[in-house]
Structure formats: C-alpha cells, structure tokens
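Bench notes, afternoon.
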Amino acid sequence: MSRRRKDRRSVHGIVLLDKPLGLSSNQALQKVKHLFNAAKAGHTGSLDPLATGLLPLCLGEATKVSSYLLDSDKYYETIAQLGARSTTGDAEGEKFDQRPVPKLSDNEIEAVLGRFRGEINQVPPMYSALKKDGRRLYELARKGEEVERAPRRVTIFELELTGRENDRLSLRVGCSKGTYIRSLVEDIGEALGCGAYVDYLRRTGVSPYLKPEMFTLEALEALAEQGQEALDACLIPIDTALAHIPAIHLDDQRAAKLAMGQVVEADILPDGELFRLYQGKDHFLGLGKPTEDGQIAPKRLILHG
C-alpha cells in the first residue's frame, strides 16, 4: 500500500453535495474525497454532467448504505426546450428534427403531462451508463451506434408545469429510481407534436433528503481551509439515509452480541424485512433482519468509532 493511501483518514458520514455544472458524478466524488482526505468514498447514483444539484456522497462506513439512496425516489426541476430533438437528449448534443411549435394552451399541456403520471414504460437513452453486451451505451452512442433498448417500468408521481416562456416549459418532476428525465422530456415533446430536449436540469431531492441543506464544492473548500473539524461538521449521520426503515433499540448486552454476529431477541419486533439497530437511544449499529423464530440477525453492521 502506498504511503499516500496509508495517510488517508477514516472518516464516516454523508455529504450532501450541490454538484456543479459540467462535472461528472465521479469527478465530483473524487474532489470531495480529496478534500476530506477520506480512505473510502462512493456516490449514490450518477447525475449527468449537464445537471446540477443534490448528489449524496458516502464516506467510510456510509458506503454500506449507498444502495438504499440509489434505490430511493428522486426530485428534479427541468426546462424542456420545444421544437427540436438532440442526439444526447440535452443541450450538449447536436440538434436535429427541428419542427414548428404549435400554439399550446396550459390545458393542452396539462392533458399531455397527465399521460405521463403514474407507472409508465420508458426506453432508456443511448447516452446512458447502462450496458449492452458488457459495453456502456454511451460508448456505443459516441461511435454513432444505436442498439435496441428494452423499455423499463418507472413511476412518475409528480409532474407539474411550473412556468413557460416562449418555447420552453419549466417542469417539476418526482420519480422512482431508474427514471431518465431526458427520456421523459423527449417523450413529452413527441406527445406535443414538436419534439423536445432538456435545456436545464437540477436535482432538488433524493429521498429522504427532500429539502436539504447542500454544500457546494467552493463551500467545502472554504471549510477545509479552516481545518478538518470544520469540514467534518457538514457530515450528516449514516442512519439518516435509512429513516424509512423501522428502528429497534437494544441494551448494551444484546448490542455486544449482535456486534459479534450473534442472533438476539427483541422486546418488540416491528413489521418489515429490515430494521435499523441502535445501542441504547441513538448509537447506530447498522441493519438487522428478522429470523424465522422472531429474533434479530445482523445484516449490515456499521463499524465506525
């Protein structure tokens, strides 16, 4: 192991980054990992370079819960530019298929938006990180190749027109995991008869962080100049990512057994397939699962401290 790797810190928690325009999720992650000098870090699902906004980053033991944020609902603000399509589905691509935009009333737009609320089938864009025969779709797309993509079932539980100016529609979107806003905007454009692409995209929430305080890279850099203590103060606890999972509180004796991988009894076993486990009132131990005989077995323990 290199000396540089040895010198990295064991730091644990979640950073709610306000990702800037133009950076990939991994580029943003590496910058934050460097600022914290963290030994381990991971992000919770890619956000397009064109997009800004909430990108939860997990440091240390928090990487064990990143999949739960990856699977959670997401919230966006976007602007659909009507009258053309884009090779990438957004403003960075080459524009083609220019068409006149019909005169649309708010009621006509609302009628179209209503068709996309609820469960829908969505074909992922070619410019995405999905794989086909082991190769990323965006790698194929950059070579001018297009392959058939199977539609996926996603849920749009919020889709509201929040403003319009000339041929641009401002939309607020709440959706399930795996939803592509570029595909949604393209499909809305086709339903309106004029085509559309994403001209602006900002992620405003990742459940359970719906209206969170976010930190820009500039803010984190300023905190880093003040010292590690100031920087670490922006970390939020690991268990905040699991607020939707029922909690069980254990006494010291049972918590110690659980930490050694043993099955323990619970005073009350809530319904569910997973539980947040605590020693006492608020010392988070990790995740547990019920056994067939009504006890608790460790599933994913958090080993920080």
